[in-house]
């Protein structure tokens, strides 16, 4: 387990601790530190076409078109035959998050979902596996007879993007495929709101089983909201699930407004704290907010400039470490904000996945706290029960940096860790 930032490794890795002779890809619940995620497994296919191609397949230009497995297969085979495909990307909100977490932490995560029993060379499923970190344990995927989801992006000469979406078997994961021990020993469980759309599919029952297990074993639950339209459609159900199960809610400003009815990002985050312990809110050019709770006796004042928006001096205690509200004798709300790293990339290649990247950084910090607690339970870091290893402000900085990296590349998945050489100011910050 790597720790976020630049730290003195000797403090966290006892030299006498036994090590495996060979690394093992499969998670051992009672030995490893890991996070678990449930996702709809899907591959994003990027291709260049013309208007005639769209018309031939009955695809409406500029829209998201839901297609049958047969249509998707016919489209894909023609794209292959005519050499029109430029890229395959493993997709899925949680799949992206787990991959990025494993790259950042250089440690294990577990993906729950489905995978085709028969995988052929250069098939979408093949690219999904190739595009996923080897530290993501896929031994617990449920085998299915058909294809996993395909999201085909068709780009015409005028630059217009048209989408052909084939869910296929991606929602067919059965509750029986969930290993109770795996959930019970996880550092965190992460999922998204997408399965709520499918009351008639097994994935929703699987999600509810996972959530019940996390509650039974007191495992932190992180829920990311998906899209604005999804939140608008299932707002009441999402709110109830957050209240009952969630420790952390991750969302963007549009989703936050849809959930709370509050158009201002900071106030939307404050309102969401009525239902959970922490909120990660990415707000585009406005930056990133991290909000939560801390016991009054453990609060730490910031040395950064004090900020006031809709809440006066809202970042005053941002050097505090997040806690579950129920673990605080006198809980206070803590808010932190950071502007886009370096003002944002000079050229944004891809906005898809920036929020997932930020969430993976937060998950890394939560898992690091869990790991440190297992290794050094009597450390002063654990005098009180905390949700994360670092402060609100430090997590903001880390999440912001990961988002920048995702925005700077075409794929929503990190191909490597963050650059080794950072500016001296950042080195000084992480050395704190």
UniProtKB/TrEMBL annotation:
<keyword id="KW-0808">Transferase</keyword>
<dbReference type="InterPro" id="IPR029056">
    <property type="entry name" value="Ribokinase-like"/>
</dbReference>
<dbReference type="InterPro" id="IPR011611">
    <property type="entry name" value="PfkB_dom"/>
</dbReference>
<comment type="similarity">
    <text>Belongs to the carbohydrate kinase PfkB family.</text>
</comment>
<dbReference type="InterPro" id="IPR050306">
    <property type="entry name" value="PfkB_Carbo_kinase"/>
</dbReference>
<feature type="domain" description="Carbohydrate kinase PfkB">
    <location>
        <begin position="134"/>
        <end position="298"/>
    </location>
</feature>
<dbReference type="Pfam" id="PF00294">
    <property type="entry name" value="PfkB"/>
</dbReference>
<protein>
    <submittedName>
        <fullName>Sugar or nucleoside kinase, ribokinase family</fullName>
    </submittedName>
</protein>
<keyword id="KW-0418">Kinase</keyword>
<dbReference type="GO" id="GO:0008906">
    <property type="term" value="F:inosine kinase activity"/>
</dbReference>
